[in-house]
Design a protein that fits this description.
This is Methyltransferase. By secondary structure, the protein is an alpha/beta fold. Helix content is 27%, strand content 28%. The strands form 2 sheets. A 7-stranded mixed beta sheet has the order 5-4-3-6-7-9-8. A two-stranded antiparallel sheet has the order 1-2. The protein starts with a strand and ends in a 7-residue tail after the last strand.
């Protein structure tokens, strides 16, 4: 069972896509991730982009904890429909889902301005070079000082960060590692 951990809809269950095409972040890992994001003051009022949304658990958790706008990108149409149903069931009107590949979603200019927080939880079989390309495509979408969080298998290498993205550090949770980084455009003071 996947549920929202805390916030306005804390404790509510999420419907997850059928089959094993998605790998929802465990409640324990999500709780640790969002505790850190709250400590970094990265949620309240944030604009969030959730790439490879899967069940939508990360983006919907961000919305429950105070993000004002959340865009969830998921290429699997069945999973995208489940996310949309969760958005409706939880009455999280600040969320919207885009049923397309992350590459296609990022190819256009951001329709609603830049994002403060980027969450990327690609399937573990996405090759590192593909993820690196997605991170490059995401740069125009990022506000100055945006936080990036990439979830990967602990057996995967560290992502190759684009120019102007500085690693804050990883956090390991069993077989999962969360990479935290910050976008600091050239000329900005950290």
């Amino acid at each position: 069972m996947t549920r929202i951990i805390a916030g306005t809809v804390g404790g509510r269950r999420l419907t997850t896509p059928p089959g094993d095409g998605t790998r929802p972040t465990s409640d324990r890992v999500r709780e640790s991730l969002f505790s850190r994001l709250e400590h970094l003051e990265a949620l309240r009022g944030a604009t969030v982009l959730d790439l490879y949304a899967g069940s939508g658990a990360l983006g919907l958790e961000a919305a429950s904890r105070g993000a004002t706008s959340v865009t969830l990108v998921e290429s699997d149409r069945k999973a995208a429909k489940v996310i949309q149903r969760n958005i409706s069931d939880l009455d999280l009107s600040q969320c919207r889902v885009r049923a397309e590949t992350v590459e296609r979603a990022l190819a256009g200019a951001p329709a609603e301005g830049t994002v403060d927080l980027l969450l990327a939880d690609p399937p573990y079989d996405v090759p590192p070079e593909a993820l690196d390309g997605v991170l490059e495509l995401a740069i125009p979408w990022l506000a100055a000082d945006a936080l990036l969080v990439v979830e990967r298998s602990s057996h995967s290498p560290e992502p190759t960060w684009p120019a102007d993205v500085e690693l804050i550090g990883p956090r390991r949770y069993g077989d999962t590692v969360m990479w935290f980084a910050e976008y600091i455009p050239e000329g900005e003071i950290a």
